[in-house]
Amino acid sequence: xxxxxxxxxxxxxxxxxxxxxxxxxxxxxxxxxxxxxxxxxxxxxxxxxxxxxxxxxxxxxxxxxxxxxxxxxxxxxxxxxxxxxxxxxxxxxxxxxxxxxxxxxxxxxxxxxxxxxxxxxxxxxxxxxxxxxxxxxx
Length: 138
Hints:
The chain is mainly alpha-helical. It contains 6 helices and no strands. It has helices at residues 3-33, 39-44, 48-71, 75-100, 106-111, 115-135. Helix 1 packs parallel to helix 4, helix 3 (48-71) packs antiparallel against helix 4 (75-100) and helix 4 crosses helix 6 (115-135). The protein is elongated.
């Protein structure tokens, strides 16, 4: 084991870690901004459905970030893939909310605490994240 090598590359680890955490926070903030209700307040009041939905969105983003970190050529490449993932997840949410379930307002169902809908939406976000992550290749 060459300790010198690890010490020389530790700065790269810190840079990618910091950048990824910032991208994660930006993505989570954007997800929260497009949500028509206060996730913080509903989670504080014990709404499990909202918690599951938000956790799924965050997990989907982390899956993509993980893949982007492994595949990226540089930090700009990492940031581009992160923003692509955010955009894809937003588009998918809108498609599911307004096209596939026209007769059901999923946002209202999650806000009311419908755990099944929250779990479904969170799960779909993870699945989309896996697909986007697998698609990142060179």
